[in-house]
Specification:
alpha/beta, about 25% helix, TIM Barrel, 9 helices, nine-stranded mixed β-sheet, globular
Amino acid sequence: MPNAMLGLKELLDDHTQAAAAPLVRSEKDGAIRCLACGHRCLIREGKAGVCKVRFNRDGVLRVPAGYVAGLQVDPIEKKPFYHAFPGRDALSFGMLGCDLHCSYCQNWVTSQALRDEVAVSMPHFVTPRDLVMKAVALEAPVVVSTYNEPLITADWAACVFEEALKAELVCGFVSNGNATPEVLDFLKPFVSLYKVDLKSFQDKSYRQLGCKRSTVLDAIGHLHAMGFWVEIVTLVIPEFNDSDEELENIAKFLADISCDIPWHVTAFHPSYKMTDTGRTPAETLNRAWQIGKAAGLNYVYPGNVPGQAGDCENTRCPACDEVLILRNGFYVVENRMAGNACPRCGEEIAGVWEAHPPRESVGTGTPRSLFPQAPGFESP
């Protein structure tokens, strides 16, 4: 292991806590089973799981705690959540590590730390109360765990969320969805909003990225059945998942769970180890939008192509077609919602709505890093 990575590992090993009891199980001969993600790693003494940040020390599963590697105030539309607190800001924090190894990761500097010697991002040490007080001071009603894979740092995120709930804030997860039933049960008392990156509908593609498709599909079904507010993102990548057949399969899968699940089809741009693939054309996202609507989904949103998707990034009433939320990229130009019903026809609109929302974005509609001279982060 290169010196920089070794130094980072030693620093992180000193900032851990024991795993939450529901996320660990004792096995034979001092081994332990981690239940935080779908890998269900069997971790022997002195070893770490696939994520590199959850490890066995003296028969105890030690997990990340007490720091952030990314901290921003983001428009909640950037997460993206389009049906929760539109126009509001979300305090977004991330740690280090991931259970997958996507070659196109947009936050690889943090997610691939301890796996890629180039991905070295230094932690900033904070307490859960520090983060919550920042959210309160910035009038951000939502706190979101994101940037790295939050499932592998769920234990400390829960500590943050516990403080956030005391301050009457709403909590969210932005995740790859490689979840176990145990971790979803653990998160349910804290988390209201859950975004899943549904990366493909082919198991072979998922195995290239590092997990099984079935685990992610099962998790999406569990999340909806458990009452989380769920929005789904598919980063549409040329020649990886942009065929009509694959997009149709994703859309039909979601519609079978609920036609009210928002599906965000977002544009890929070259990143990390996938720099020889071109950007996703707006025409591809418009085709995905048509496929989603044909499958019966009420809410399909093209992303990362502001101004090139017509009015498809707006929220419309599925009953009368009234424009309810008018958007320009991450900025809410006008929010006509009041409560959870269409003001024109009274149709109930699925989501997490405020009784008296701001009529337009409260902030600037752009991300703001809370670390001096730090690069911006993107939702996975």
